[in-house]
Amino acid sequence: MEQGPRDRVAVVIPARNEAATVGEIVAEVRTRHPDFDIIVVDDASGDATGAIARKAGAEVLRTPVRLGYGGAVQTGLKLACKRRYDLVILMDADGQHDPSSIERLVLASQHYDLVIGSRFLGEASYSIPLVRRIGMRIFSMIASAVVGHRITDTSSGFQALRRNVFTLFALGDYPVDFPDADMVIWVAKHGYRVGEVGVKMHERRSGRSMISGFRSSLKYAMKMPLAILVTLLRMPSLGREGSQK
Amino acid sequence: MNIQVRIMALVVSLLFIIYVLSLVRSRKLRETDSIVWILASIAILVLGVWVKPLVYVTELIGAKFPVSTLFFSGLIFLTFISLWMTTRISELSDQVRELAQKITLMSEEKEEG
């Protein structure tokens, strides 16, 4: 099934100090999907991330101070909301998310409001540390129970979001550090459809993961169960916007 | 409570009130934010002069000395102040994030226009 004829699609790429990879990513997305708008949110980088992304054909939003991954994503979603795009593809600028998988996310978005690109259903050319894998599995199991079917990769930042979902994230709360199973649960609690497709993921070509090092891992391990619990206790805050399809 | 402890409580609370007022005067602390500290200092000042309520609470909670009650109350007060401060920091962080996002989007609008 093809993407809807009038669907306006934006690819939102949060980036901080990704000068080494962002140009290549933007260029590849542009070649594969010339009709998509590419928005790079340069999170107060200290290098030429913004200039390189612009040169490669992206529109660049530069934040005046570092907002963190979630803050940068939310900035892009706010712009998408303002411009009333129909679909947003979220992907990283570090080369981990293969642009060839965007097509699969777009196709699946015909049936779901939030499509997660899963490395476990697709091809992941790298290994994840055991402890983190266990954590991801537990959080995915909780999210699966709420969603009502199996979700394997809640921590994937490679996603397709229909307008109702990115409006929810843009206008409501969106975690600044680790958007994960809590956001999947939040979407499901609003009655939106959550699905998954296999995607290609690679070892990041530059930079460091948000969850790297003892301190970040500990923070993630402590924060996520709490975030899930709070999300389960929260009542849906916004009125449902009609599904696009 | 012996007289030395009472005098010390009086002196410390008086000095503290003076310090808080000087911070407000030099605009390093807002009036509204200083109220809780001034009230706490006044409470210690009053309890230093008039120990009856402190003795009553000490008996009520089964503590041995009024000084212990005073320290315990101080600890609870500081714990709540810390929690309140943390909520303020969270609130301010959210406001900073929102402002930064608005500035980012306004810059984009300006470039577009």
CATH homologous superfamily name of chain A?
Spore Coat Polysaccharide Biosynthesis Protein SpsA, Chain A
Number of separate strands of chain A: 7
Radius of gyration of chain B: 22 Å
Number of distinct helices of chain B? 4
Query: Which range does the strand content of chain A fall in?
Result: 15-25%
Mean pLDDT of chain A equals 88
Regarding quaternary structure, what we see is: heterodimer
Explain what you see.
The complex is a heterodimer of chains A (245) and B (113). Chain A is built from 8 helices and 7 strands. By secondary structure, chain A is of the alpha/beta class. Chain A has one domain (9-233): Spore Coat Polysaccharide Biosynthesis Protein SpsA, Chain A. A 7-stranded mixed sheet of chain A has the order 3-2-1-4-6-5-7, with helices on both faces. In chain A, β2 (37-42), α2 and β3 (59-62) form a beta-alpha-beta unit. In chain A, α5 packs parallel to α7 (181-189), α5 packs parallel to α8 and α7 runs parallel beside α8 (213-233). Chain A is globular and about 45 Å long. By secondary structure, chain B is an all-alpha fold. Chain B has one domain (3-112). Chain B has helices spanning 3-25, 31-49, 52-61, 66-112. The longest helix of chain B has 47 residues, at 66-112. The mean pLDDT of chain B is 90.
Q: What secondary-structure arrangement, pairings included, does this model have?
A:
The complex is a heterodimer of chains A (245) and B (113).
Chain A: E1 9-15, H1 22-32, E2 37-42, H2 49-55, E3 59-62, H3 68-82, E4 87-90, H4 102-108, E5 114-124, H5 130-147, E6 159-162, H6 163-171, H7 181-189, E7 194-201, H8 213-233
Parallel strand pairs in A: 1-2, 1-4, 2-3, 5-7
Antiparallel strand pairs in A: 4-6, 5-6
Helix pairs in contact in A: 3-6, 5-7, 5-8, 7-8
Chain B: H1 3-25, H2 31-49, H3 52-61, H4 66-112
